[in-house]
Every structure is written in structure tokens, then in C-alpha cells.
Amino acid sequence: MSPQPNPHVADLHPYEPGRPITDVAREHGLHPSQIAKLASNENPLGPSPRALQAIRDSLDLTHLYPDGAGVDLRQAIAKLHGLTPDHVVLGCGSNEIIEFCYHAYTLPGQGKVLASTYAFAVYGLMARLFGIPFEEVPDRNFHHDLAGFSARLTPDVRLVFIASPNNPTGTRIPNAELTAFVEKFPAGPLLVLDEAYYEFIPEPPPSVQWVKEGRPLVVLRTFSKVQGLAALRIGYGLARPDIAAVLQKSRQPFNTSAPAQVAALAGLADTDHVKKTVSMTDAGRDRLHSFLKKLNLRFIPGTANFVMVEVGDGDAVFLALQKKGIIVRPLRSYRLPTWIRISIGTPEQMERLEKVLPEILAQKK
User: Fold this and answer.
1) Are 165 and 298 in the same domain?
2) Each residue of 126-169: pLDDT tens digit?
3) How far is CA 294 from CA 288, 290, 291, 317, 354, in A?
4) Which of 123, 190, 295, 313 has its Cα between 20 and 30 A from that of 209?
């Protein structure tokens, strides 16, 4: 008799990432240089040159284990935010901090977890993996319904996930609305505020101030998006020291690599690269909005580095674009089969999309 897997794992549908460039190129007989990947909300400019140099400089020490505590990077992050290193937890992407929260603050079969209906799939996947009841709060026109969250904050709630800007919808929560929610958040559950796209929004919320005030929340940040370090898998969480200490106990001893730590450290210092990325993204997003309006397509105005658009048959458009060397993200896995998500690329990539997408939509009619 074969070993019997945990039923929570056996019945789990894994997360579906955006398709790799090499796979699409091989499948359609294209060279990787011909592929425009507009699927995974990555930085098309790549990482900071300083980060790349830091990686190169670190390679001679590849035979040594990294600093398990990530002291230098945690100190730099803490200084940036006016916190102490005891407020900072490093993760293999901010995804791993989500896992830490489950390890540290849930028990199998006990309590429940709240998230918005159209929110990052990993919140629910982790709940199922850990055997925790998962409850979705219906959106209001693809926006978080914070009143709906408040109404469901019963004593058995363990974790609450709020993302702003939200993925895949691209919507953000107004600062006044989010502040009111945080200030009234009850004792008991842990609020996880996912800010993976924080750098892209003007006038961001005072989330670090809430950490300084000692509120029961964890703020998630990542180096995968604006910093362009997605392949290195590095992110962090900010929380008051007692919460951060519990999360630290949940991580593996060397969960972030030395190249990732030094690249993130160098990236933090290169504010010009961040400004260049945000400027290009703002222009590209405005351009994409205007283009979609001309096509009379329904879309949700984005606030980060991607836009969600309704195209009829999302899977069919996704496949047709792939044949033309453009990868977008179909949203069937989010129960949005008529929608796709388009990441903001370089001006040249967006020009390619503008040429190809109308042709494909005309063929689908």
C-alpha cells in the first residue's frame, strides 16, 4: 500500500504562475528575444545595475552559507522605515512571510481566515494546505469591501488578508477607508497588509506608522516587483517586535540566499532606478488605459503595474497572443474566465500589444 498523503495536500490545486519565456518560445518556434512577457507583473527594465554588480561580487563566496539572520539587509530596511531590525523579517519573497503567518498564528481545523473574493490566490492555497477554514468576503465592483470584512470579524478569525493595490484586480483602498479599518481592528486576529505594489501608488497609506504604533498587523513588501529581483526570491515583513519574533521562529535557518540579500541591499540604495521604473510604469499604464478605451473593452483602471481587462474568452485570447510572442495572464484560475491581466512593459512591448490585440479580438468575433 502506498503512503497516504495529507488530504489537504492531495486535494490541493497548485498555484499557476505565468508561463516562462523559454516554454512559450519552444512551443511556438520563436526565439526567446521575440517574446514579450506581460504576464507576471515583473519589472521589464530589470534590476538595478548596482544590484547586478552586488550579485557578481558575492559569487566568490558561494561556498559559504549566507547570513541566516540577514543582519545587514534588515538593518537597512529598518533604517529606511525608521524602525529597528527587530521589526523586520526576511522571506523567500513576501510569499514566505504569508506562510510564516499561518505557521505562527493558526492551528489545523481551528478558527478561520478572511480574504477578498478576487485576491492573491496564495492566501487561500495556504489556508487549504494548513487545513484552516477560508472565507471569502465578496468584492464591491472588484474593490475590497472593508465593511464586509468588519462584519465577519468574529472571535474565531485568526488571519485577515488585505491587499492594496490588489492582485489581480489592480484596485487600491482609499487611505481614509483603510485607516479607519486598521484603527478599529480588534484584538485577537492578525491583520496581514500585503503591499507588494506599494511603490507604484502615489500618497501611500501610513502602514509603517501603524507598525510603529504596535498594532496587530504585518506589512508585506517585496523586491520582486519594482526592484526587479523576482528570480532571487526576496521579500520582507514589518511588524512590532513580539509578532516579528514569532514569525522568525517559523522560518528555515537560511531562507534567503547571499546573492538575494546583497542585491536587495544594493537595490534599496538605488532610488533612481526605482523612480525610472515607476515613471515608465505610470506612462505605460496611462497608455494602456487609453488603448483599451479605444477598443471599447471593459477594464478595471490599474493602480500598480498591471491592468485587468475583459476580452470575452480569456483563455482563447491568451493562447492567440502567445502565438504572436506575447504572454499575458488568463484569469480562469481566479474564476474570471472572460478576463486577462496585462502587465505594463516597455514602450516597445506595449506597441506590439497594441498592434496584435485588435487583430486577435477581430478574429474572435
Assistant:
1) no
2) 999 999 999 999 999 999 999 999 999 999 999 999 999 999 99
3) 10, 6, 5, 18, 11
4) 123
Cα gap 144→159, rounded to integer Å: 16
Exposure b/e, 248-287, CB count within 10 A at least 16 = b: bebbeeebbbbbbbbbbbbbbebeebbeebbebbeebbeb
CB 247 within 8 A of CB 219: no
Name the 3-class secondary structure at 236.
Answer: strand
Q: Give tens-digit pLDDT for 186-239.
A: 999 999 999 999 999 999 999 999 999 999 999 999 999 999 999 999 999 999
Q: What is residue 69's DSSP assignment?
A: T
Query: Dihedrals φ, ψ of 300, to 5°?
Result: -100, 115
CATH code for the domain in which residue 325 is found: 3.90.1150.10
Report the run of H or E that residue 307 belongs to, with start and end.
Answer: strand 306-310
217 close to 193: Cβ distance less than 8 angstroms? yes
Cell of 12: 490541493
The grid cell for 64 is 559559504
Domain residues for the domain of 115 are 50-270
Task: Read off the pTM.
Answer: 0.94
> Whole-angstrom Cα distance, residue 72 to residue 70?
6
Which is nearest to 125 in space by CA: 224, 17, 5?
17
Residue at which a domain ends, from 218, 237, 270: 270
Q: Decide if 207 contacts 163 (C-beta within 8 A).
A: no
Query: Does residue 314 carry a pLDDT above 80?
Result: yes
- Residue 264 phi/psi, 5-degree rounding, is -65, -40
Domain containing residue 157: CATH number? 3.40.640.10
